[in-house]
């Protein structure tokens, strides 16, 4: 009876995760990146790894395949469940990550007010990723698994250290955040240098180096070692929001800074905070202030460190202390008696069954305010040709209108700096835009008025181009009759 109650009665975390996982599973496609992952997965299933990029006519080479499994799994999920497929995948990965975090925050009877607050703050810090069907959900799941292994290694488990090696090899094939595994393992080992058994610290440093080398056991091979650094140094990367410094006015940033304050507070209250715990968390926390992309990982690491440091610390005195103690006792009783870890997966399973019974098409589920659905549909049935499209729509063109390579899309590391510069010139009609447009020789232009798109739309009219399909979000344009796709005999 107790076991059945723990399966069916949700605790604080499983109740929250069930609601969020169901909301994610029921939501429409949200990320512009999803579609080039889907297009890549479809192409990989049909042709294997390409020698050149099949989706653009300006790419400098084939896309670096460091996240190839996500595209394949997302495409297979779309084939099985229609538009709900990628959302179901994200919901499952989110639920697994959140429940593993809940386990990381302490044993069931000790999950009181602090564990619940930490859990909510981490979810808020991770909230921007909920609306993104991207491979970083694999990275977050494996990162929590890494934190569990590092905790076990600090506690004396040599097997946990060895398991970091295959974890890193798997991670390197799933998401570009894999360097966190050898980096945090190495910092943990350095923090253990003052332990009574320094040999374990030396062994940990050696294992962290071995974990780094294990990343080469991937499709890209040893080229993977330099890819994160090369990508971070690209001029085009600097303009991406996720690579910018953290700003306090972002809602999820406030949750992250609250975690930072709690970490400082409990570090001060702990008699001797273990350096092996504090060093990797502090390094990652500092990195997240400089680069937004690291915030989800730093939030997870800070929550795990706070929960561990809080064990055995004395409570707060006074009237507020009594209030906190009462709330804490109530939450401990609830979380200790309940469970419900299966409920988020059951909710996602129900959505999956409904979707499998009546799968909807991805094109029909596209948000009309974000995608020019009518124009995409018209392009899908048009003769093959080059497309100058808004950068954020390039992936949708690759997926819904194959055979129409684009000038540029959201895979910023795939395009030379000259292509990025030419795109900006054409978008804003900056000096040199006519030359850039003539050099691109587009057969179609898929464009919209938002994000500085109006100037080029006006210029298309001046140049004699004609709008053939569209709506308020965006429209499809074709050149004058002498330039129409197929008229030159080089439809490409």
Overview of the structural elements:
There is one protein chain. Helix content is 60%, strand content 3%. With 492 residues, the chain is mainly alpha-helical. The chain has 2 domains: 89-336, no CATH class; 368-483, no CATH class. The chain has a 4-stranded mixed sheet with strand order 1-2-4-3. Strand 3 and strand 4 form a beta hairpin.
Cα Rg: 25 Å
In N-to-C order, the SSE pattern is HHHHHHHHHHHHHHHHHHHEHHHEHEE
Largest sheet: 4 strands, mixed
The shape is globular
Parts with pLDDT < 50 across at least 5 consecutive residues: 488-492
Distance between the termini: 68 Å
SS summary, helix count: 23
Strand order across the largest sheet = 1-2-4-3
Number of E-type strands: 4
Total domain modules = 2
Helical amount: 55-70%
The residue-averaged pLDDT reads 89
Structural class: mainly alpha
Q: Report strand %.
A: under 5%
Keywords:
23 helices; disordered C terminus; mainly alpha; 4 strands; 492 residues
Please render the helix and strand layout as text.
Elements: H1 2-8, H2 12-26, H3 33-47, H4 68-81, H5 84-104, H6 113-130, H7 136-154, H8 158-172, H9 180-191, H10 198-214, H11 227-232, H12 235-238, H13 251-269, H14 275-290, H15 295-310, H16 318-337, H17 343-357, H18 362-365, H19 373-380, E1 387-389, H20 394-400, H21 417-428, H22 433-440, E2 444-447, H23 454-462, E3 466-470, E4 475-478
Parallel strand pairs: 1-2
Antiparallel strand pairs: 2-4, 3-4
Helix pairs in contact: 2-5, 2-17, 3-4, 3-20, 4-5, 5-6, 5-7, 5-17, 6-13, 6-15, 7-8, 7-9, 7-15, 8-10, 9-10, 9-14, 13-15, 14-15, 21-22
